[in-house]
Hints:
heterodimer, A: about 350 residues, alpha/beta, Rossmann fold, 7-stranded mixed β-sheet, 12 helices, about 15% strand, globular, B: about 240 residues, 9 strands, about 35% helix
Amino acid sequence: MCGNEALAEAAIIAGCDAYFGYPITPQNEITAYMSKRMPEEDRVFVQSESELAAINMVFGASATGKRTMTTSSSPGISLMQEGISYLAGAELPAVIVNVMRGGPGLGNIAPSQGDYFQATRGGGHGDYRTIVLGPSTVQELVDCMPLAFDLADQYQIPVVVLADGILGQMMEPIVLDKKPRRELPPKDWALTGAKDREQNIVRSLWLPEGALEEHNYKLQAKYEQIQKDEVLCEQYALDDAEIVVVAYGVAARIVRSAVNQARKEGIKAGWIRPITLWPFPTEQIAKAADELSIFLVVEMSMGQMVEDVKLAVAGKTPVLFYGRPGGGVPTVSQVLERIKQLTIPPKKQ
Amino acid sequence: MKTIFERTPTLKDCPTHYCPGCGHGIAHRLIAETIDELGIRGRTIGIAPVGCAVLAYNYLDVDMVEVAHGRAPAVATGMKRANPDKIIFSYQGDGDLAAIGTGEIIHAAHRGEQITVIFINNAVFGMTGGQMAPTTVLGQVTATTQQGREAANEGYPLQVSELLELLPGAIYVERCALSGPAQIRKAKKAVKHAFQLQLDAAQGLSLVELLSPCPTYWRMTPVKAMEWIEKEMTKAFPLGRLKG
């Protein structure tokens, strides 16, 4: 089972009632898998006419209280931004998987991390956030799916799972289990037909003076709660580290190998791997910056998450960057080379 | 004393935000009466468009959602597929359905989604200030066709119902007018039939196009606007049951 199929099955186990998608490489295995498995489970699969339609089908199913998701890759996710903004405004839960490919434009179909800004800043209009998960193994991708659905329902928020072409295509052994879930609030806001109750309205329009401002404050309070409670990150060998390398997703796997090699060669290196890209592990990185001398950020882009690391470090120590865009994947030796350049003092002239 | 006419319960008792002579109020009433007569308030979900009728939920006392411009048929697809027992209707203007949402309505019909679409054609964009819509008739002066719409520059009025009629997935398509009591009674029958088809789980999409007055942006009195529908608009948009 490749990552794409594994995440699809994990979504089914997590109780996804309805899946809507449009074909795009490198995530086509998901739509194909769902077209077979969802009807077997007596659930909904629709191949939409566009990504615009797919995200709005998600909007519709979500508004009725169903667990629903869509998947796509970078150009398709761009088309979905309108719908994501409306989901955020209307406070509807949804899961959106982006199996990232190279860009901008049509780009290519190689793996990339070029959509970090789009995912974490919100590519759509308005003052909103989405939760963004950045798994680095197929197992973690699989584990992300029930978490994504639970977070979406708990906070009534769209959750983006930010994978990439490598994770989508990669095969790794996985365990699909049914872990206990979170206690979730009832969906008493859902549109189910106003039988023996007053009408429910799902909306994102707030016209009276001050009404939208109030709504934005309400959203902000929710976002602050998420930042307080939901940060996930992994740290390794920071205690004595002289350099800490920050990476997420598959780039973090490369960093892990490079740091292990550096340790073998006597370099005191460690790493931090954000798992939630929003909320970002700002506090963990800030704490590390108090004690460590230098940061290196490695991405499969020309540098996007590095801005969040710099915000967290707040000028306390240097933050350097190494990355490759457009389908280029940094190698272990390339990352190791950068670590060495930054830690071994140059010979005096 | 015998009551011979009263407000139907699903239509809320509240002041209207629509302009004098606007057709939305009539269309809302036809939908509310239909819902009450069929006894489906408890299982109906409505979709409000972007445009003047975005606040339709202030008048129609059913569960409702507000969606992005043009996307109602996709939202309706998600709702109906996930809830086959619910009655789903979208209420869309001509900017919403015939311009920005052309793709969504064509494909919802093409898939034969079991939804009901009430399509309000008033030949202009109302909410944004009376600009040309795809349904603006030739010669009609709007905010963006100040010399009158010309086929050579702006194309011909888009006949959405005639387009949808061609699709096997659209099982019922009828065009009516809100231009006077006789026409409104016909429109009521059409609206009710469109809902009834969904209630009967008929296999496809039902759409009723309502030619509706916009006196404000037609720069006419309400009475003249009613006359203009019958004299001018019906030339580009002939009334009648196109299918089903």
